[in-house]
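Supplementary Methods, section 5.1.

A reviewer requested that the exact input to the structure prediction be made available. We therefore reproduce it here, unchanged from the version used in the analyses.
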Amino acid sequence: MQYTKEIFAHYTKEYIRIYQAYNTTIAHEAVKLQTFGENFNVNRMTWIKPSFLWMMYRSNWGTKKNQDNILAIDIRRNVFDSFLERAILTSPDSDEFSGSEWEKAFDDTKVYCQWDPDRNINGAPINRAAIQIGIKCNALRDFIDNGIIKIQDITPQVAKWNIQRKNNKLTPKELPVEKIYEITDKKIRNRLGM
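The structure derived from this sequence is encoded token-by-token as follows.
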């Protein structure tokens, strides 16, 4: 199946919303501080995901162990855009690099891009891709220190939607509205295989 590779997200002029799933300790601390605290490991890579339904697929609607708290995090668009400018695909599928060039770029970067099949309400793949952006080191610090505008714990709403979904009473209209996040820079599009 050929997937459309565009970023679908909920966003405004100021922010883009991404989703992450954590255990209760990390999630509650993040909501309280409106950033990540001492229980969050800054020495590991973290993946940010703009697709709500891909996050639901990944966390099984917030029911997987250590992924049972779903956070909606609004981050500054300029910070998100800076990640796209630095991101390297996790596999050498880009038109921008030869094999050895990709290996060097991959080794040098702190921002990674991966495309996975986006999902529908019941977890089945659809004909578009969902982007995940992996950040570590200085990119992760930039996210924590400069990127975050607001962190919301949406776990209760996710649980409610999951019950409706299991009873065939959930429609896409009730979920977060996501539209194409326009990327016009040809260099970024080529590098990320868009």
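The CA atoms of residues 12 and 160 lie 26 Å apart. These observations are discussed further in the main text.
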